[in-house]
């Protein structure tokens, strides 16, 4: 799976060589995470279909609340778009599908294991409130499963196909259509299709498998402070327990919360017991109000309360109905000892995920297109006692991008700012293309110093410029902004990368504290790669490189030695290793793999 700077398509693909990349890296996750990997995703928010190949029909990106891919030719007998890798074998492909018209003999559907334009598995929405799982071989159709479901034009449906060996199964809106054994198609790409119909498509994801072997784990985890919430008890990709609560995009608050009768997330949060799990089925959850885990709704250190994606599916909490307002957050986690895994939170009127509680874990989450910082740790109210400020939260193997507020001054990728307690950690996290900063650890004089924050093995790039090219000159545009208001806080930043950010890579931002800045890499940020004008910080084994024109010499004040290679007009010897295009992925165990020019970065 690679993301190349400058590519406009928001999709990621794992090459077969990923296992070798993972084995070579020195960046490892402290504990194994059994979790479905996202091998590919596309939301079409960049406005293009680059990376997809068309066969028939009239395809274009249009606005339907968000940007979506539309097939608009109702007379086309076979309109298809294909993506992915012809060598993919075992995976789940999921997409949101809205049929606009369904002609006689027509359908709108999702494809898996496509080996040609006429051979694949297909899950089809048909006229007459019917859905079918089919094997299509050289145009010949075999029905593997069929069910009666309400198929309404103008309504979004979530379709998913899982292929694993000879097993093929399909589900619509979280309910299984059919499961069959079929050996006719063993590998292939994904696709979207209509016949004599028109439809919109969005939120395409491929999870768990493809051609990716599981990388070997490391026996030497990085040394770091660890939140008291353990990172070792994460959901498995096996079938969830029947005792869990289930929610779905079409769930109702009063429903039982079973797989057959799913409830809503807001209702499940009030019902889940200590140690219990809420499984979110895939699809888009259109929300207009903040979903809140209230203070006092707590798990325990040995039995967290859990919200996790159903195995192989991607739930998307969409708050586009909210106006931009500090009161309009997406998911507010004010309780303690919760674990949130595998969900996407987008388009909230303020923070996508707000963390006011302590001892929580957020893993494999994506926050995007929100109108303040994607994920922010901060106290819940101005009168919250300091002893209750959020502490010991872990954000791990997560991504935050394209968050933007209207004035361009506040929307960062990740933030722990204003007032937070001690022990908050960001690890294996990626922040990019946010309108303001990648990370913001801003402290205010009227609230007192925040607790030290640790950032490890993370990546910050292209902040200050959205993926669509938008720039707001009010934004600070730094990779890692580490302070504010001349208050000293002893943050720790280790083995992290700042690349092509719109101002500084790493900056003290008026933090005169004794920070630990070690084994970091900063490349081609617009002003300084490292900018520290005060303090007594310690710098070890940092590398600064500049391959493009512009920018200023690095500046550091504090304890430096010859292990650093800062930029003062020329590149040091280590910079020959770090030239070339940036790519990144999350390995199967959750740790971050970064390559530059095809070479794995080990810091």
What this model shows, in words?
- With 603 residues, the protein is mostly beta strands.
- The chain folds into 2 domains: 11-37 and 221-603, 3 Solenoid (Pectate Lyase C-like), CATH 2.160.20; 41-210, Exo-inulinase, domain 1 (Jelly Rolls).
- Helix content is 2%, strand content 38%.
- It is built from 2 helices and 47 strands.
- Strand 6 and strand 7 (119-126) form a beta hairpin.
- It starts with 17 loop residues before the first helix and ends with a strand.
What characteristic shape results from the CA principal axes? globular
Question: How many H/I helices?
Answer: 2
The largest β sheet comes out as: 13 strands, antiparallel
The first-level CATH class name of the largest domain: Mainly Beta
How many strand segments?
Answer: 47
Radius of gyration: 24 Å
CATH 4th-level superfamily of the largest domain:
Single-stranded right-handed beta-helix, Pectin lyase-like
Distance between the amino and carboxyl termini: 20 Å
GO molecular function: carbon-oxygen lyase activity, acting on polysaccharides; hydrolase activity; metal ion binding
GO cellular component, one term: extracellular region
Cofactor: Ca(2+)
Protein name: 3-keto-alpha-glucoside-1,2-lyase/3-keto-2-hydroxy-glucal hydratase domain-containing protein
């Amino acid at each position: 799976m690679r993301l190349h700077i400058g590519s406009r398509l928001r999709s990621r693909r794992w090459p077969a060589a990923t296992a070798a990349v993972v084995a070579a890296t020195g960046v490892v996750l402290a504990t194994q995470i059994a979790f479905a990997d996202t091998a590919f995703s596309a939301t079409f928010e960049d406005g293009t279909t680059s990376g997809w190949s068309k066969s028939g029909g009239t395809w274009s990106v249009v606005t339907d609340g968000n940007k979506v891919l539309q097939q608009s030719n109702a007379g086309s007998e076979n309109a298809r778009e294909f993506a992915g890798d012809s060598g993919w074998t075992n995976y789940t492909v999921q997409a949101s599908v809205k049929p606009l018209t369904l002609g006689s003999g027509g359908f709108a559907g999702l494809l898996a294991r496509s080996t040609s334009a006429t051979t694949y598995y297909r899950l089809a929405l048909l006229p007459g409130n019917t859905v079918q799982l089919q094997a299509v071989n050289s145009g010949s159709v075999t029905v593997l499963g069929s069910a009666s479901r309400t198929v309404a034009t103008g309504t979004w449906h979530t379709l998913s196909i899982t292929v694993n060996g000879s097993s093929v199964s399909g589900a619509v809106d979280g309910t299984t259509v059919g499961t069959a054994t079929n050996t006719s198609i063993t590998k292939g790409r994904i696709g979207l299709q209509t016949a004599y119909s028109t439809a919109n498509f969005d939120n395409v994801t491929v999870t768990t498998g493809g051609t990716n072997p599981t990388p070997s784990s490391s026996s030497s985890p990085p040394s770091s402070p660890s939140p008291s919430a353990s990172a070792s008890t994460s959901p498995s990709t096996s079938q969830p327990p029947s005792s869990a609560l289930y929610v779905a995009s079409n769930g109702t608050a009063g429903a039982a919360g079973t797989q057959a009768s799913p409830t809503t997330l807001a209702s499940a949060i009030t019902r889940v017991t200590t140690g219990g799990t809420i499984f979110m089925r895939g699809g888009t959850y259109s929300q207009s109000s903040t979903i809140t885990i209230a203070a006092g709704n707590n798990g325990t250190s040995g039995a967290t309360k859990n919200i996790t994606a159903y195995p192989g599916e991607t739930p998307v909490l969409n708050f586009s109905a909210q106006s931009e307002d500090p009161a309009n957050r997406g998911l507010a986690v004010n309780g303690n000892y919760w674990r949130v895994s595998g969900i996407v939170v987008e388009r909230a009127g303020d923070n996508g995920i707000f963390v006011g509680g302590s001892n929580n874990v957020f893993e494999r989450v994506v926050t995007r297109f929100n109108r303040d910082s994607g994920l922010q740790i901060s106290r819940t109210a101005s009168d919250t006692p300091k002893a209750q400020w959020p502490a010991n939260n872990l954000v791990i193997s997560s991504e935050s991008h394209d968050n933007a507020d209207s004035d361009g001054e506040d929307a960062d990728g990740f933030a722990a700012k204003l007032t937070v307690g001690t022990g908050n950690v960001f690890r294996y996290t990626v922040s990019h293309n946010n309108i303001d900063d990648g990370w913001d650890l801003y402290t205010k004089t009227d609230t007192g110093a925040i607790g030290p924050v640790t950032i490890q093995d993370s990546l910050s790039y292209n902040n200050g410029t959205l993926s669509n090219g938008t720039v707001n000159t009010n934004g600070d545009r730094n990779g890692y902004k580490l302070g504010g208001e001349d208050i000293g806080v002893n943050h720790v930043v280790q083995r992290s990368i700042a690349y092509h950010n719109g101002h500084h890579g790493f900056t003290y931002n008026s933090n005169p504290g004794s920070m630990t800045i070690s084994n970091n890499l900063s490349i081609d940020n617009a002003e300084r790669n490292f900018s520290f004008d005060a303090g007594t910080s310690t710098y070890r084994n940092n590398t600064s490189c500049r391959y493009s024109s512009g920018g200023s010499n690095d500046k550091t004040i504090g304890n430096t030695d010859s292990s650093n290679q800062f930029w003062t007009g020329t590149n040091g010897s280590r910079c020959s290793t770090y030239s070339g295009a940036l790519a990144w992925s999350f390995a199967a165990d959750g740790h971050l793999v970064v390559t530059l020019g095809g070479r794995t970065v080990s810091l």
